Structures are given as C-alpha cells and as structure tokens.
C-alpha cells in the first residue's frame, strides 16, 4: 500500500516554543541546591527525557544518598520553578513559522497531535492560543517508557487513528528523534544539534517548515 501523509506529530519544547533555556534555569536551581554541576550542554542532552530520569541522573552524578520521596519532591520543586518562568507566556513566544505551518496542516485536513514529555505542554498550548488546532495530546503520565522509547509517538498516531507509515513526527532533541527513528514514521529534525541530520528531513529552523516542503520530502522518501 502506498504511503500517504495523513498526520503530523509535534514535540513541544524547541519545536513549538523556545522553552529549552527555561528548563536550564529551573534545573540549574535544583542542581545548585544539590551542589551538583549542571551545564547548558547537559540541559540539551536531557531535552525530552522524563523529569525523574534526569533527577535520578543528577543524584547518581555525585553519588548522593537521597530517598525516592525526596527525589520526587525535588522534581516537583523543579517543575514549580519552571511554571514560574512560563506564567507570562503569550502567542508572541511561539517559534517562527509554527503558527502558519499548523494552519496549513489544518486547512489540508491533516491530523495534528502532540507528543511532548512535558506535562506543562497543554497549558502552554492554551497560552499560545493554538490548543484547538490539536486533534490529540498524549498525556506523558500515561507512558510506560519515556523518550528515547518510541511509545509516545506510537500513542499519538493511535490517538488520531493514523497508521505509523502515514505519520510525520517533528523533533529537535536527540532522545525524541531516536524514538521516531525506531518507528516507520517520517522523521523531521529541527535545529543545530548534529544528531538532527539523521532525520528524513532536516531543517535548521522552524521557519523552514511548510506543508509544501513536507509533502515534497515525504514523497521523495517513498
């Protein structure tokens, strides 16, 4: 059966809005409290990785003796720091070209789904005034395995009722793209991370995303 593009699955952080630096600020506060080193490069490596996985790695980095309950508390505290930073989000903070791209997809009748590891993503979609454009949003708390496992992308495709071969999935993080590459989906990598060039279609900026370009690249990969 010939492949046909029917759905596009989005990551949120770094694809729809530039929130990556805010995660760094929030996580650095926790790392400083634990007296654990945490760099901007570390932040990029943990992009898309579940919060508690990252917290466990921070604990292991300095061989800290912290209970699971305390780790959960610190993880929630880090989320509170992040929520303070996103409280004033508005449509102006959407990444370039995304609003136009989403509307092109909607007008073409394609299904749109969100596959973000962040539990704050639905809230931010509402702040950006684009929540109604999404046909499905995967709840990260429903996952057995986080990125780089492909489960979140598979669930997104299932939620919109589209077979995996007919989905395109967009990521800017190595963990997320690794997950997409484990599926039959058409992969789109965005940004400066070298790993993004492993995608079926690589673009330097969200500004380069458009329906015509996606169709062209998708057809060329059939």
Number of helices: 9
The sequence of SSEs as H and E is EHHHHHEHEHEHEEH
- At CATH level 3, the topology of the largest domain is Rossmann fold
Major sheet details? 6 strands, parallel
How many runs of DSSP E, i.e. beta strands? 6
Provide the domain count.
2
Give me the secondary-structure category: alpha/beta
What general form does the structure show?
globular
Poorly predicted segments: none
Can you offer a commentary on this structure?
This protein has 222 residues and is of the alpha/beta class. The chain folds into two domains: 7-17 and 90-220, 3-Layer(aba) Sandwich (Rossmann fold); 20-86, Orthogonal Bundle (DNA polymerase, domain 1), CATH 1.10.150.240. It is built from nine helices and six strands; from the N terminus they run E-H-H-H-H-H-E-H-E-H-E-H-E-E-H. The chain has a six-stranded parallel β-sheet with strand order 3-2-1-4-5-6, with helices on both faces. Strand 4, helix 8 (174-181) and strand 5 (186-190) form a beta-alpha-beta unit. Helix 1 crosses helix 4 (68-86) and helix 3 packs across helix 4. The longest helix has 19 residues, at 68-86. The radius of gyration is 17 Å and the shape is globular. The model has no long low-confidence stretch (mean pLDDT 94).
């Amino acid at each position: 059966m010939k492949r046909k593009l029917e759905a596009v699955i989005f990551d949120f952080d770094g694809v729809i809005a530039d929130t990556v630096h805010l995660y760094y600020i929030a996580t650095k506060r926790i790392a400083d409290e634990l007296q654990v080193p945490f760099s901007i490069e570390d932040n990029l490596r943990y992009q898309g990785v579940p919060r508690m996985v990252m917290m466990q790695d921070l604990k292991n980095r300095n061989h800290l003796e912290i209970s699971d309950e305390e780790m959960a508390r610190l993880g929630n505290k880090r989320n509170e720091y992040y929520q303070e930073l996103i409280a004033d989000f508005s449509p102006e903070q959407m990444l370039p070209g995304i609003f136009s791209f989403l509307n092109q997809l909607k007008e073409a009748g394609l299904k749109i789904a969100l596959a973000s590891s962040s539990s704050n993503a639905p809230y931010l979609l509402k702040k950006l005034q684009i929540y109604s454009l999404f046909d499905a949003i995967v709840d990260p708390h429903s996952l057995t395995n986080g990125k780089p496992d492909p489960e979140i992308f598979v669930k997104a495709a299932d939620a919109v009722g589209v077979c995996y071969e007919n989905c395109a999935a967009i990521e800017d993080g190595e963990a997320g793209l690794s997950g997409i590459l484990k599926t039959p989906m058409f992969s789109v990598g965005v940004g400066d991370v070298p790993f993004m060039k492993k995608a079926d279609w690589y673009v330097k900026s969200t500004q380069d995303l458009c329906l015509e370009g996606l169709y062209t690249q998708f057809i060329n990969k059939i």
